[in-house]
## 1
Amino acid sequence: MKCDREQLISYLYDDVSAAERLAFERHLRGCAECHDELVALRGLRSTLSAWTPPQPELAFEVVDHRIGQPRPRTAGWRAWWTPAAGLAAAAALVLAAASALAHLEIRYGSDGFSVRTGWNTQAAVLVPSPAPSQDAQRLEAAYADVERRLHDLESASHAPAAASPIRTASQTTAADRQSDVEILTRVRDLLAQSESRQQRELALRIAQVLRDVDAQRTADLARIQLGLGKIDAMTTADAAAHRELANYLITSTRQQK
Amino acid sequence: MPSDGQTPRGASKPTENVTSIGMASTDEELVARSMGGDLDSFNQLVLRWERPIYALAYRVIGREDDARDVCQETFLRAFRALGGFKGQAKFSSWLYRITLNLCRDWIRRQRRQPVAQAPEGVDLLDLATETTPAESIEDLVARRELSLAVQRAMAVLPEEQRTAIILKEYHGLTFQEIADLLDCPLSTVKTRLYQGLTVLRRQLAGAGLGSNSMTGRS
């Protein structure tokens, strides 16, 4: 039997029939070259066994989306996650918070009271003043009446003597005194009603502001939570870099020895 | 000798895949149930074969993350194509074929010597957690360096030789199974193996890892 490399390989991996094995062993006894090569290849196989693959957590699983949600897979988000993405997310978070603060706007004018931020569109809705009700119309009419009567009084007191009869204290009638008391009472009523109305409106607006601020705070907290998670992942990446550096130092130290 | 494919996880842990009568289900039984719509059975196959498939992908393309992707894609493709699996070959051979095709696609995309650039940093801190009490950190480093030397030597081989060696050496396939997978004659498989091993001997000897037994000097 002459030297046959294919037979040598088959024998090396013990992938031969019994007859082929016997025949090759007979050949080996008389062929030093094949014998040495066989020994060398066995040594090589021993060395090759040192190459071991990593042992990552795999846990792949096929899931049916129709009947359930896929189980969380850390590998998935790890693969998705990169330090650059974290940096971008953190920057976006800071920008979002700054923008929200910068856009905060509180306004009160003839068209009503409004609170506006850059994020909460609901809060940005302009709140109009209440439509004039019958009460308001009645109050306005009364107010106009009071104004007219005050104007009449002022006109009477500044009128020239010739143009009007001089009115002395004795000439002041009981009806006039009654009218002044009535005017003062009405003024007080009007002021009280106006004050009450303003207080109600203020309470309404404050409640509105509190709701908006609370909504904004909840949204900001969610964003901050997200950002913290991402920053945590970045920290993990930094730790990995430090580990690499430590490994490098250990290897360098060992090589110097 | 190493043989990741001969000891898939399910085989070493038969309690993970047992039938109602207490016997481990074979691949064929799990495949049949999977084809009947039993998702759990398919996931048992995944559990059984994910590590050998990952090891094959890692050794062929040499990148951890990419090997993970190839592994995941292998099972997705297998799941989608399960209806077309006729059972003419072993289920594992079918998976290997899908994996090797995906690896070839990956190598074509990369347009580079895959394993040559593959060695990634040796994380000694991780290694330290793997060590046994009897193994010092020095032994551990030496073992990992030997592993990297083998990986680099394998990177020099042409893809055909490297794949043949990986399938035989680390996955324990028969020559006939390798020939079927690679669509080449049996003799070609043996020739590729012999040529590849010869190159590896030279490479490792050049890296100072040759020994009397490895170089054939007895």
## 2
Amino acid sequence: MITTADNTSRMASAERITFLVSPEEKRRLAREAKKAQVTVSDLIRGRLFTGPNDDEAQVRALLAEVLASTQRAHAAADRMLERAGTFEARAREREQAARRAAERELSGLDPIALAAGLALTPATTRRRKGGR
Amino acid sequence: MSITADVLNTLKQVVLMNDKIERLEKAADKQEETTLDLRERVIRLEAFIEVARAAAHARALPPAGG
């Protein structure tokens, strides 16, 4: 992608630089230039002298996402640790409430009938029944 | 693989791990509620059995002065 600034820079270009690269590097430059639909010279100038390239923009965008998701994960981990630290106290509180509720419920029942219903009759009674 | 691709891949792994931590929090919430519910049910059963056993024991005692 060539911007107006690039064109201005290109128009002002008057110096020539020659440098050696390997055949693979040359192929890569050609490939990248073709991909970006620019000349090799424009590609090199663009990478060096203009704003952030695509890679940098991608990394910056992902960094912002990493930062936001890490902050959310930190908050989630803090909440989990806080709940784990208070779990026993909260469990005891709920158990006490459950016990009080059960006692209220049982106060209206006949304990003898309840014992019989749960087959918790005393051993002596069971022996007498068996003897008959 | 270029260094940029490595960096991007690593950052993506961090984002995925963070997402797992958030999902883990929701799973832990559910498990905690299940555990608390089970403990309440055990307490209720214990209370029933305690009352019933006390009643059965009282019934088994010989009458006073007998």
